[in-house]
Write a structure and sequence with these properties.
single chain, about 220 residues, mainly alpha
Length: about 220
């Protein structure tokens, strides 16, 4: 039973994040570059501002799904890895996430700070919005509250209404197409690159590898 449930989770997360969506992924930090010194407070740092926006979006509909939690956890780890003390940086980012998910009054300020502090281009802001919309849609729904908060963030980032609407339409189409596809257990093993005799631990290990490799 556990292995079947895990396979379902793998199909949803791996397929939804990696198949047939042709826009460029939101860029992860270049971990090949020299590590940035961790100085403790990340609330006004680019990584902290991204995490704050992520927290607002993840909690917009009042809950955080398992798929959202997986993506959030991996993103926190990737962002922390730009620092020379990643474990401490991750704890700092996690604290920002836990704080910022509890209220929404400062959402516009956080988004405006992101654009001004990072001097982000319009292209970079759109990539960030792609990431946030993917977080909204990953559980198969796009709630009214999620739409409202992402609209506000898009405006604060200087994204045109037309561009925001096009992004939402593309995500709706992509996720609707994936939701309509059926996949049996045999196909699930094929996607993972495993035989149907694989153990639960092998499935779990492969799943984690693929998610880390392909998440935006």
């Amino acid at each position: 039973m556990n292995s079947i449930l895990l396979l379902i989770l793998v199909i949803v997360l791996y397929y939804l994040l990696t198949k047939n969506y042709t826009t460029a992924h939101y860029s992860k930090p270049n971990q090949a570059q020299a590590k940035e010194p961790f100085r403790g407070n990340l609330e006004r740092h680019e990584t902290g501002l991204i995490v704050a926006l992520m927290a607002k979006v993840a909690k917009a509909d009042g809950r955080v799904s398992e798929l959202e939690a997986q993506l959030i956890s991996l993103t926190l780890t990737d962002l922390a890895n730009v620092f020379d003390r990643p474990d401490e940086a991750r704890e700092a980012l996690k604290a920002i996430y836990n704080k910022e998910k509890e209220f929404f009054e400062n959402t516009l300020i956080v988004a405006q700070n992101y654009r001004s502090i990072t001097r982000a281009s319009n292209v970079a802001c759109i990539k960030l919005m792609e990431f946030l919309l993917n977080l909204c849609f990953i559980d198969g729904e796009f709630s009214k509250n999620e739409r409202m908060i992402t609209e506000d963030i898009a405006k604060a980032l200087g994204i045109k209404e037309r561009d925001y609407a096009n992004l939402v339409a593309r995500f709706r189409e992509f996720y609707a197409r994936k939701a309509s596809q059926e996949m049996g257990e045999a196909k699930a093993y094929e996607v993972l690159g495993l035989s149907q005799n694989a153990t639960f631990q092998e499935i779990k290990s492969k799943y984690r590898t693929l998610v880390r490799e392909h998440h935006p």
